[in-house]
């Protein structure tokens, strides 16, 4: 098993914005993809789409304000199905620290390398959304390679 | 053991620039840190510094033009010492694809999460250097958190 790990920090007087950006359809659409739908409550399923290439369905496993959000991938690329995505939040003075883990990849395939870099760019989009009000969700996301 | 993995693609008519950016002091200073010194030949040691917080010494293990560059960390933060950094290069049409692996972390500590995100931002700096002639090496690097 192999994991993608990241850490970003957001300097914001309103740390609840980070949690909202991870637990509401509008918030998620502000940094990951414009085309976000579904039910963000625990037990619900969120649909993230990246036209024209597909997307991911995530079951919300856990959502504790200011502490943790957890998803399980229930549909999407074969390599993603069954993997989990955990967001741990904490406040350090002026900074909201986000520890991100996308766990349970069966093999460290080339697609995993791509997803790791792409997650980093989306985390910086989340940081920008929280700090400035403006993220870079798909289709306005940063292109990192031929795989977009 | 835990690994940091990334993948970026550079669209350039001069793929040799990617290899140069990984195997010359001037090239490395163009995307990672201004304060790069040392010997970039196989068997040599490169010194990367990020004033005022320290840096890394890397022994060059391997350098095959257009294919692979490999380093071993011989000095720096405790968690980095003994880890290896591999760069695999290949040409796919107009794109130079870089697979990056920073392998051999003893534990997936919080600092590893930070380094993973920070590597992604430096890889995008490398991409920018190759594609536009202008990277964002330290101290002009993207700040991703309270840990810089």
Oligomeric composition of the shown chains? homodimer
* Greatest interface and its participating residue counts: A-B, 33 and 33 residues
CATH superfamily of chain A: START domain
The best one-word shape of chain A is globular
Strand order in the largest sheet of chain A: 1-7-6-5-4-3-2
How many β-strands of chain A, per DSSP? Answer: 7
- Overall structural domain count of chain A: 1
Can you give the helix content of chain A as a percent range? 10-25%
Topology as H/E string of chain A?
A: EHHEEEEEEH
List the helices and strands and how they pair.
The structure is a homodimer of 148-residue chains.
Chain A: E1 2-11, H1 16-23, H2 25-29, E2 35-38, E3 45-49, E4 55-64, E5 68-75, E6 84-92, E7 95-105, H3 110-132
Antiparallel strand pairs in A: 1-7, 2-3, 3-4, 4-5, 5-6, 6-7
Describe this structure in words.
Two copies of one chain form a homodimer. Chain A is of the alpha+beta class. Chain A has a single domain (2-132), classed as START domain (Alpha-D-Glucose-1,6-Bisphosphate, Chain A, domain 4), CATH 3.30.530. Chain A is built from three helices and seven strands; from the N terminus they run E-H-H-E-E-E-E-E-E-H. Chain A has a seven-stranded antiparallel sheet. The longest helix of chain A is centred in the C-terminal third of the chain and has 23 residues, at 110-132. The radius of gyration of chain A is 14 Å and the shape is globular. The model of chain A has no long low-confidence stretch (mean pLDDT 96). The A-B interface holds A 2-9, 11, 92-93, 95, 97, 99-101, 108, 110, 112-114, 116-117, 120-121, 123-124, 127, 142, 144-147 and B 2-9, 11, 92-93, 95, 97, 99-101, 108, 110, 112-114, 116-117, 120-121, 123-124, 127, 142, 144-147.
